[in-house]
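Reading a protein record of the kind used here takes only a little practice. An example makes this concrete, so a full record is given next.
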Amino acid sequence: MLKSLKYLAIAAAALPFVATANTASAQDLVVAAAGNPGGLAVFVAQEKGFFAKNGVDVKVEIRNTGKELSTGLRAGDFDFAPAAFTNLPAALERGLNVRGIVGYVGAAFEKSSSDAVVALVASSASGINSVKDLKGKKVGVTFGSTGDVWLRQVLKEAGLSINDIERVNTRPPGLVSVLDTGGVDAISAWEPFVYRATKKIAGAKIVKRGGDLVCFCAYLHGNPDRVYKDEAATQKFVDAMAEAAAYVRNPANKQEVAEIGTRFVNMTKEEVLAGLDFWVYDPRIGANTSKAFSKAVDLLIEQKKMKKPFDPADYLDSKFIESTMKRHPEWFADLGCAS
């Protein structure tokens, strides 16, 4: 079972590259991350000292679901937490007041749809060889997750509806087990659970992966009081996240990054490595980010989870990451341009 973890930032005295001016202005922050490889930039920022290097003293906490992350942020347990575009807008419409300041995971800056990290996995006994074969079957999925939104679009693409299947609400850590025990015929899951299912369950197979049907993307956000109370501290936090994301993306660091991931969440190094082929760590905010957000809103309205459009400008604030990009272009040199 995944546990809630807290990691104290590495002391400045142990880091010879940390300037005294930075440590003197260090701020205490609590940052939440999801218990999967999507949080690798946060984990690496902590483990490699990028938070401390950039002048912020950070504690990291792990949660399993988006609901737990949002609940903790509302309760004041965290200063910053991620949320996926496929469910965040509904919470914003209901009154959640946060500002997204830096990319957590996903390729939203480059294109408004990107979902290769999520897939449909079926058991060998299910008789499922295509999406159309899902009719009348049980599918394990975490209700309200990006995997849930993606599944609906997959069904729509195949001429089916959500009423053609029986959805079984399953927490992410239980997706592989419920498929393995025969509780469902298939699961809609993301990495590393896709990789874990195909390796652990004999005959389990990927029926469909991705397809650019939704944007599997999330941004780190905080309450306006936290974001703007000390903008210098917020900027340092964004700088640290951008530097860490660049480190994660560097192929030369792949083995080390995977090893770091195993120290924060309950998964093997092989599982983390497999996920690195599909997760995207791009901290930028741009025009396509807004498009991805608006597309998610349209889907939520279609699913009757929202009543009306929500302006992405009321959520996204790109000024911090734009400042980082101007001062540290080397952290973004490997990334593609917006399409």
User: Anything to note?
Assistant: Residues 43 and 263 are 9 Å apart (CA to CA).
